[in-house]
C-alpha cells in the first residue's frame, strides 16, 4: 500500500542554507536537498522538539530529513523529522575553512534552482563541506569546489576557449577574463580587464574533468598567489552574475588573504587586476542569472 507523503513525508539529504527564527520555537529554513533542489521549509517547534529534531539545524551540517509537500497557502514544506549525519564540528574552529564554507553556502543559495533537483550540484556542495571540515584551507581546493558546484547548473565561467571566437586558450598560459560575460576572451577579440594565470585556469578546468566522465589530470603546481587572484576574479564574476555581494568572501579575504600568499600581482599580459568590486546593477527580484557565456561540465 502506498503511503501518503503528506503524512509520512519523503526522505532526502539536506544542508541548511538559511535559518530564520519564527515565533518562540519555530524555524523557517532554506535547505539545499539532493532530491528536491533548494526548498523552503517550516520546522514547527524546532527549538523545542528533541524527539523529531534531536540536534536542531546547525550550519554546514549534513542532515537526513523527511519533508511533506509544499503547503497550499505558501510554498513552505513542513519538516517532519531531521537527523544530523555529518555535523562538521571542526569547521567553526578553523576560520579560513569556516569562511570558505560560508561562501559556498551563499553561492549555493543563489545558484541552486528552487524545487528542481540538481543532485550533482548538491553532491559538490556536500563533498566540499566534508573536505573543509577536514582542513586545511587551500585556495586551489576552494576554486575546484566552486567550479564543481557551478558547472552542473550551467553557471561555471568558460575557461577553455574564447567566448567570442571559440579559439582554444593555450594550455598553461594566462588568459584574459571578462567578468561581465563570464569567460576567457582572446587578444584577437580584444582581451579583457582581468587576467587568470595559466596554473589557476588549469586547476579550475581539471576540477571539471570527473564531471565530464574523464580522469582528473594531476593538479598543476601553483603557488597560492595566482590561485588567490583567480578566486578574487571568480568572486567578482559571481557577484556580477547574481547582482549581490557575498559577505563570506570579505571574511575570507580578512582571515586567509594575507596568509594565502603574496598580495595580488598585476597581470602582465592583460591589464590590471582590480580589487573585487560590485559591478552589477541592482538585482531584480526573482531574476535568474543568464547562462550565456557559461558552460555545463561537458561544454567547456
Ligand atoms: Zn577570440
Outline the secondary-structure elements.
Elements: H1 5-8, E1 10-22, E2 26-33, E3 37-43, E4 62-67, E5 77-86, H2 95-111, H3 119-134, H4 139-150, E6 156-157, E7 175-178, E8 183-184, E9 194-196, H5 198-208, H6 224-242, H7 247-256, E10 294-295
Parallel strand pairs: 3-5
Antiparallel strand pairs: 1-2, 1-4, 2-3, 4-5, 6-10, 7-8, 7-9
The site of zinc ion has 7 residues, from loops.
Explain what this protein looks like in three dimensions.
The protein is of the alpha+beta class and 300 residues long. The protein has two domains: 82 residues, OB fold (Dihydrolipoamide Acetyltransferase, E2P) (Beta Barrel), CATH 2.40.50.140; 209 residues, Recombination protein O, C-terminal domain (de novo design (two linked rop proteins)), CATH 1.20.1440. Helices cover 30% and strands 19% of the residues. The chain has seven helices and ten strands. The chain has a five-stranded mixed barrel. Strands 8-7-9 form a three-stranded antiparallel beta sheet. A two-stranded antiparallel sheet has the order 6-10. Helix 2 runs parallel beside helix 4, helix 3 packs antiparallel against helix 4 and helix 4 crosses helix 5. The N and C termini lie far apart (47 Å). About 9% of the residues have low confidence. Bound molecules: zinc ion. The site of zinc ion has 7 residues, from loops.
